[in-house]
Amino acid sequence: MAGLSRRAFLKSLGASTLGLSFLGGITDSADASQKSPIDLGPYRLKFTRETTTICPYCAVGCGIIVHTQEGKVVYTEGDPDHPINEGSLCPKGLSISDLSFIVDKNNKRVPNPRRLTKVLYRAPRSDRWEEKPWDWALNKIAERVKATRDATFEIKDENGVVVNRTQAIAHLGSASIDNEENYLMHKLARALGIINIEHHARL
Ligand code: SF4
């Protein structure tokens, strides 16, 4: 290992694995050809498309390779070429594929049926969730922010000091957005007079 960098080692390991996988594919090609690419088991990465992305969980910003087949995520791994994590991931980043698929009772990876892809809304005092369009949700949020701010805005505090604030709205997060987005969200919150601004990442 002397003189061999971590990245070079990972790459040579990948090349070896690919070679073994290729040989395995020759010996079992008849069997593998009987199955859909999505059911290839140990060969599941053979027909995948690789896309690089950034872990959304925290501001470390680790690089991840996402393998997809037919538009579905089948595997994720740390990106060895990414300068921040060099292929490693913490437990949260490692389990990121759970957002897209689960392991079923037959030990197969299948799309996670609980993943939310639509807006769900539960009206006040209702006992059920309704599906709503994104535009409806955005307009509803804007209406409620305005109504709350208008009803609670304080120009001066009890000592007569100008404060221009509302304490009825709080802003939380996010660890999933970058510096520029955080800057804009912070600016929007301050412009609205929101002073309760928090973040859920404890780094
Ligand atoms: S949550 Fe973990 S894997 Fe994701 S960016 Fe943060 S340290 Fe990296």
From TrEMBL:
GO terms for cellular component: cell envelope. The keyword NADP does not apply. Its cofactor is [4Fe-4S] cluster. One of its GO terms (molecular function) is oxidoreductase activity. Residues 48-104 form the 4Fe-4S Mo/W bis-MGD-type domain. Keywords: 4Fe-4S, Iron, Iron-sulfur, Metal-binding, Oxidoreductase. It comes from the Bacteria. InterPro entries: Mopterin_OxRdtase_4Fe-4S_dom, MopterinOxRdtase_cofactor_BS, TAT_signal. SMART domains: Molybdop_Fe4S4. One of its GO terms (biological process) is anaerobic respiration. It is found in: Cell envelope. Belongs to the prokaryotic molybdopterin-containing oxidoreductase family. This is Molybdopterin oxidoreductase Fe4S4 region. It comes from Calderihabitans maritimus.
